[in-house]
Amino acid sequence: MAKAISARALRKVYPGTPPVEALGGIEIEIADNEFFTLLGPSGCGKTTLLRLIAGFEHPTSGTMDMFGESLLEAPPHKRQINTVFQNYALFPHMTVAENIGFGLEMLGKSKGEIATTTGEMMELVQMSHLADRQTSQISGGQQQRVALARALAPKPKILLLDEPLSALDFKLRKNMQLELKRLQLETGITFIFVTHDQEEALTMSDRIAVMSDGAIRQIGTPREIYDHPADRFVADFIGDTNFLTVEAKGASVKLASGKSLKVAGAPKAGQVTIAVRPEHARLTGADNGLMSGVLENVVYLGTDTHFHVALEDGTAFVLRQQNAPDTAAGHVAGDKVGITFPADVAQVLSD
Amino acid sequence: MSDLSITEAKRQSRNRWLLLSPALVILIFAASGPLLITLVYSFLTAGDFGGVEWEFSTDAWFGVFMERDIFDDTLGWSDAHLSIFWRSVKLSLLTTLACLIVGFPTAYFIATRPKKQRDMWMLLIIIPFWTNLLIRTFAILELIRNEGVVNTVLIAMGVIDEPIQMLFTEFAIILGMVYVYLPLMVLPIYASMERLDFNLVEAAYDLYATRMRVLRRVILPLVKPGVIAGSILVFVPSLGAYVTPRIMGGGNQLMIGNLIELQFGQGRNWPLGAALSITLLAIVMVALMAYVRAAGDEEVRHG
Hints:
The complex is a heterodimer of chains A (351) and B (303). Chain A has 351 residues and is an alpha+beta fold. Chain A has helices at residues 46-54, 96-106, 111-124, 140-152, 170-187, 198-204, 222-227, 232-237; strands at residues 5-14, 20-30, 35-39, 61-66, 69-70, 81-84, 158-162, 190-195, 207-212, 215-220, 242-249, 252-254, 260-262, 269-276, 282-284, 291-300, 304-311, 316-322, 336-340, 347-349. In chain A, the strands form four sheets. A six-stranded mixed beta sheet of chain A has the order 6-7-8-3-9-10, sandwiched between helices. In chain A, strands 13-12-11-14-20 form a five-stranded antiparallel beta sheet, with no helix packed on it. A five-stranded antiparallel beta sheet of chain A has the order 15-19-16-17-18, with no helix packed on it. Helices cover 74% and strands 5% of the residues of chain B. Chain B contains twelve helices and four strands; from the N terminus they run αββαββαααααααααα. Chain B is flat. At the A-B interface, β6 and α2 of A face α8 and α9 of B.
């Protein structure tokens, strides 16, 4: 079956002195009915990629197909793709219902059909009671729902979402994340979601593409990306990570402390970096661990406690421990502690 | 209330009037005064050598719309005046329309340029404004007269054999007025276009609207205040235009402005001139009220 979106060697260069390469040779395949997230820091090219898919901008070179048909020549209004804009872009001179019905009206649907579908959509996002309000008279969260309903009403094959949750407060954002996921499952539409918030990406996505500097660093499920980051950038960007510089020797690596560890995927020789997630490591007695150091800081965060350790060679290392009712405050700042972790949680990174 | 607070209130009220006085003086002497004089003059008798005689008469108002046949003394509509009124309204409407057709895309073009370039484009629009009106009008005249640039080029290219008579026609007047008043249309439309969120244009385009529909359903409704302001700014001075119809119309295509000037000049009929001026004012007011109401209705419908 043809992919919802498949792009080959997609480049976008903005003219100027010097020209700015926003996207450099993107290869991406997004399956039908997938919740796909483009994740990266601002300026990484994720929004440019979204605008290319929507048709607001044209690629400098490369190809892009939608369900097997080339998108290169199609203007935005000929693409069965709708967008939820970051600032919602609701039409200020129309009511909530008129906004939601706009796409259907432009498609030349009958009045009856527009009314029915608009009603359904307002039901879906729980906005029925505000149908005749002006868009300036509703709250940010409500505007967000209207923008979503407006984009879903014409039943597009692909829905693009450009950081639609960034303007909402924390609680509302959490709710909307779950709601978006529910909508995607209910409608069966392919969602392509752009965000710089890694937690948001991990919560909702089927697959994530991590981008930086106009290139895709890694594509995978949230678990793959979190547990097996491809490179240092991905490991650093997604979640918190401890980086350790180690010496590769045969099938194992030698830590700075002198202890050896068998790690999959390590090169035969030379210096490599391994990544260890804070929650994968444990504190032990000073002499029992793989490494040892001085506990500098204990940060209590309600659900977790963070332990900041300065290793013997000066490297900072953070451990995270979930708090349970019976957790005793075993260690205090200033203690000499050991650190241990299972060999299979250490990820070898290419820089 | 004690006496003290009453005097205090009086003092405050006096201060308020004192502070308002500069504005009031200007309003009385610059706006209401001349208008009142014009109104009074329109009800007086014309002096033999210009000026007015202080004797009440409705002859002037009578003469605005009616005339007495010089042979058999019968009353009839003043065809000459009515046709001038009609021409004034018609040419002003056409000028406004032409300014809109040329000005709207111009404003759109400028508003969609990068921020740094916009000022340069606006400057180009405004520069002609710094030139004297007469000179600008003569420049247009130079372009379209029979021996002018346009005809010469067309003949040289073999497109036409005879020069096209453009000067001294209604076309010439419209062309002249469009050229003169175009900035007044571009500026307010540009002002509202600049505030337009172009995300909305993309949103409409994304929701299957063709370019024409984006224009009609999203851009036009949102820049309507600018369009209304521009239309008024062009229509009102066009209606009272004097220099342009005089030069481009060559004296045989009179508009109200020329007719009024005629009464105060060669006609030596100041009361009639005054009555015509008030009539012009009335036409402008009626037109504006109709226009604003028509535009306002739509506003209410959309909220």
